Amino acid sequence: MMNFSPPRQRKQSINMTSLIDVVFILLIFFMIASRFEKPAIKVDLPNASSGETIDREVLAVTIDAESRVYLEGKPVDPAAFKARIAPRLAQNPELTAALYCDGEVPFQAVVEVMDRLKSAGVRHAAIRHDRQR
């Protein structure tokens, strides 16, 4: 009987070059396809024909159509309103509150928020609107 030596096993490897290319192309695709803006609260601002631009630091206060209040895009409880504003006022006592109010918000809700701002120590407030065309 013939004595055969067992076949040598070749070391097999996976060519990673093409895989890296595909991953890189997918990465670029998703970076371009994704949106780079923060998710915003849906507010339909009212229109106005006059107004002026604020050129100083503002504190964004948003009131949505259901009269929920947001401070810098985060929901805020009426009881915690003053405590959330205090650190910003300590940094800048001349801070201006910019109210982003939905057009469907009852005026009473706007007055309540403005009253909370005043009791928190905010001296300047502005109501944001869209320019009328």
UniProtKB/TrEMBL annotation:
It comes from the Bacteria. Its main location: membrane. It is found in: Cell membrane. Pfam families: ExbD. It is a single-pass membrane protein; Single-pass type II membrane protein. GO terms for biological process: protein transport. Keywords: Cell membrane, Membrane, Protein transport, Transmembrane, Transmembrane helix, Transport. GO terms for molecular function: transmembrane transporter activity. The chain crosses the membrane at residues 12-32. One of its GO terms (cellular component) is plasma membrane. Belongs to the ExbD/TolR family. This is Biopolymer transport protein ExbD/TolR.
